[in-house]
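FW: tagging you since you asked about this chain on Friday. Here's the raw sequence from the shared folder, copied in full. Didn't touch anything.
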Amino acid sequence: MCQWPDETRAFTRAWEQLAGHVTAHRSELVLLPQMPFSHWFATSRKFDPAMWKAAVEAHDAWESRFPELGAAAVVGTRPVDFGNERYNTGFVWEAATGSRAAHAAAFLANEKGAWEATWYRRAYPEFTPAHVGDACIGFLICTELWAMEQAMIYGEQGVHLLVTPRATSAATLEMWLAGGRVAAVLAGAFGLSSNRVDDKGEWGGQGWVVGPDAEVLALTDEQEPFITVDLDLARAERAKKTYPRSAFAHRSAR
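HL: got it, structure written out here
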């Protein structure tokens, strides 16, 4: 997990540090924040075609560098053109197969600082788990974290990891972490999140790893912007059979 700079001039140094961390810790999966390879353009209420095009091209360029992270799978979101429509799409990249779309964001903010629905389309709410090796992964992209019913459905589908690439402010860190902990409990899964960061607090950083019973296992901060945690996927499988998940087991039998 990471906290990633919003300032494009800082990308190269952050990438070098991330690659070094992944190599040193033998990380098997890297979670990037929401659309990491351009500044957060959705602060503008007016759609700018040139800015969107530049963001798509920047993500294409950085994606070509994913092999520099070694064998690690890379997960995040990126701007995508689909015909005449634009989406914020979650992806999974693996060295053997390249990048594949996993889930397009369905619940979007559209307010000051986050005019998402102005810049890209709300996708049909289809939440299909992705797989990386033995890990079953459910995407809850930023605002989607608050769709707690979906966290429960993901749990019924057997996900081990809930991943939340996000772009959230320093003022709301406590609220977002609380949401991440609840979602992990409902799914009986590990909750993972990475966020943007800047010096002004507009973006608050603090990536997290939380356990299936809401325990905070690790947080990023200024001194440690990248964290790697060893996770036992079997623990998520066991958690689904325990309280409070067990109280709702009848839902699957409907």
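FW: Residues 11-25 form the longest helix (15 residues).
HL: agreed, and The helical segments are 11-25, 49-63, 116-119, 148-156, 173-187, 233-239.
FW: great, closing this out.
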